Amino acid sequence: KESSAASDVYKRQMHDDPSRLVEDHPARENPDWTFSYGGQLYYDPGVPEAREFVVEAMMHSVDNYDVDGVHFDDYFYPYPVDDEEIPDEDTYAEHGEGFDDVGDWRRDNVDTMVREVSEAVKASKPHVKFGISPFGIWRNSDTDPAGSDTEGMESYDEQYADSRKWVTEGWLDYINPQLYWHIGLDVADYSVLVPWWEEVAATTDTHLYIGQGAYKVGEEEGPWTDDPRELSEHLHLNEDHPGVHGDVYFSATSLRTNAQEAFEIVQEEHYGHPALVPVDPDLGGEAPPEPTVTGSEPVGDGLELSVAAAEGSDPAYYAVYAIEGPPEEEPVCGIGDARNLLGTVRAGDDGTATFTAPAAEGEYTYYATALDRLHHESGASEPHHLP
After folding, report:
1. For the chain, how big is the Rg over CA atoms in Å?
2. Of the residues 198, 212, 257, 331, which has the fewest C-beta atoms closer than 10 A?
């Protein structure tokens, strides 16, 4: 399991009345940092002090808590509201020097914040990953030849979010575009957007994770309601695109409610075995030495394995494997087969951990590997054989 500090970035309140905030709230103490739009209150991305506050707020979490990542949702400049203009004329007049177009200025404001967060996170804790889940369409190809063959809202123009640039500039460790549309949708076809995003990320070190719209299952007319296999078909399509490193589901509540049946199909067809977190070589790190399985004992319906780090090493996790039969002379193939992976466990401060394996009939050999904070994996421990 990984922990993260998450943020909606500039979105502040679901209302636009600063007096409803606590007296010492930064948005109340600094009303010139905010604007009201669509009945909601936002920090103004064009105010340098507001941007600095966002960066400092996120870095407080990074510096003071043991997080694995910083994750931004899709709120930068607000989604457009009919018949309303973003009220940042005064901010543009004060801070827009050098920009003849307000859109370019707004995009630069967002770019600056993304870049500064990226730099600050890496300077503080290089192992902490920084990623964003933007709206799934950057630009349409009829607007920009580099865009996707779609016809939906363009986040570049409407939210001033140049998500493609964030990837190509290397500011993100991962991008998680919200591809919350079904396969075959004319204006935003899932099967069109996956390869487009794969191509964007292909020449970079940015991992691509696809945002899946589980909240739509059974709630929206069309395939999301008519076909419980729609979600699973998304993952089947992803299998043909090796640049996709995984999937993120919105929302977790949906997986237990409206999308439960659909996700049971996903689990059966795609998640039969645990998996390790993908390694991003660009972040550095190295695999620890092999650990030792120091013992085992039956507990309830399972088997509790004790694992210890090699002397002088400090792993973050252990992975535990069970391979049927007696010990192998070279267990490399067995360790490389995800079907043999039982799961992972966080190492304690003293380098030890206990892992409870499910009960198994027959002869099995257990192995453990050690992983650093960035999930580089060691070789296998000496075998722990239970005839």
Report:
1. 24
2. 257
Per DSSP, the residues of 333-377 read HHHH-GGGEEEEEEPPTTSEEEEEEEP--S-EEEEEEEE-TT--B
Is the peptide bond prior to 381 cis by the omega test (within 30 degrees of 0)? no
- DSSP designation for 356: E
Residue written as tokens 């901010």?
Answer: 91
Question: What's phi and psi for 153, nearest 5 deg?
Answer: -60, 140
Q: How far apart are CA 347 and CA 345, in angstroms?
A: 6
Q: Does residue 208 contact residue 198 with C-beta atoms inside 8 Å?
A: yes
Cβ-based neighbours of 83, under 8 Å, separated by 6 or more:
none
pLDDT values of the chain reduced to their tens digit, one per residue, 387 residues: 455 555 555 555 555 777 888 888 888 899 999 999 999 999 999 999 999 999 999 999 999 999 999 999 998 999 999 999 999 999 999 999 999 999 999 999 999 999 999 999 999 999 999 999 999 999 999 999 999 999 999 999 999 999 999 999 999 999 999 999 999 999 999 999 999 999 999 999 999 999 999 999 999 999 999 999 999 999 999 999 999 999 999 999 999 999 999 999 999 999 999 999 999 888 889 999 999 999 999 998 899 999 999 999 999 999 999 999 999 888 888 888 889 999 999 999 999 999 999 988 889 999 999 999 999 999 999 999 987
